[in-house]
Structures are given as C-alpha cells and as structure tokens.
Design goal:
- With about 140 residues, this protein is an alpha+beta fold.
- Helices cover about 40% and strands about 30% of the residues.
- It is built from six helices and seven strands; from the N terminus they run βαββαβαβααββα.
- A seven-stranded antiparallel beta sheet has the order 4-1-3-2-6-7-5.
- The longest helix is centred in the middle third of the chain and has 12 residues.
- The radius of gyration is 16 Å and the shape is elongated.
- The chain starts with a strand and ends with a helix.
C-alpha cells in the first residue's frame, strides 16, 4: 500500500475559548492542526496525518483524539485530495486578524480577544493566530450601534 495524507475533522464537546485553544492545539500541533467552530457552532479540530489506508487513518485519528479529556462528538476522515476538493468547492469568506477587527470596531486588540474568549465574536485559531470572518465583525458593529 502507498502512504497518503488524510485530513481529520472532529468535533469535541468543550467550550471554544482562549483558555482551551492551546490545549486543543497541543495534540495536533505536529499534524498541521487548526482549531475553530464547526458549522454547527461546536468546537472543531482539523489535522492531517499520513496513513496506508482510511482504516489506519481512522485508528490513528481516534488515538490522537483520545488524548483529549473531552468527549468526541463527530469525526470525518478524508484523503487530503478529497478534503481539498471540498474546500475548493466552498468559497472562503473574507477573514481579518484580531488587529484588523479591533480597527474596524474602534476598540483595543485586547477587547477583541475578550470578545472571542466570551464567545461574543466567533473566531478560529490557526496555529497561534486568531482569524475572524469579516462578516461577523461587521455584524458586531451593527449590533453594537
């Protein structure tokens, strides 16, 4: 069998905030991991791992996910090629950094981080960087006015 890369998308039953994001990233840091919210608003981890088969990818993914203290709610494993095809089919919305969001909102960077940690502003953490959908920041402006 030929080894290929698989992408794992898993939802965990844990609040997504600044306090848990580092804990969520630690087990998947060596696998190009990212943490964010799923379409259902749940905490989601995404990572890539090499495997000889989808069965092996599932087994390895479950072993990694078992290192978390939180329950696994769902998991999807796709070849990276299929994952990328799906990602290309979905247009990525415009994203902004914490600093850009602060500028748009007219507040300090720390205020944006506080809004993220209290779930007032949805954000995704990729590595050590938070990104926010521009539309979410603009909606926050409208609701704050």
């Amino acid at each position: 069998m030929t080894t290929q890369d698989y992408n794992v998308v898993a939802e965990l039953d844990v609040p997504f905030d600044e306090g848990t994001s580092d804990q969520l990233l630690a087990p998947i840091a060596d696998h190009g991991g990212a943490v964010g919210r799923s379409e259902l608003g749940r905490t989601e981890v995404v990572f890539t791992l090499p495997a000889d088969s989808v069965r092996q990818a599932n087994t390895t993914a479950l072993a990694i996910l078992d290192t978390y203290p939180w329950p696994l709610l769902s998991m999807r494993v796709l070849t990276t090629a299929d994952f990328d095809r799906l990602a290309e089919a979905v247009e990525l919305p415009p994203l902004v950094s914490v600093a850009e969001a602060a500028s748009i909102l007219g507040v300090a960077r720390q205020s944006v981080l506080n809004a993220i940690s209290t779930s007032k502003l949805p954000a995704t953490r990729v590595g050590g960087t938070w990104v926010l959908r521009l539309s979410a920041v603009e909606a926050h402006v409208r609701h704050s006015a």
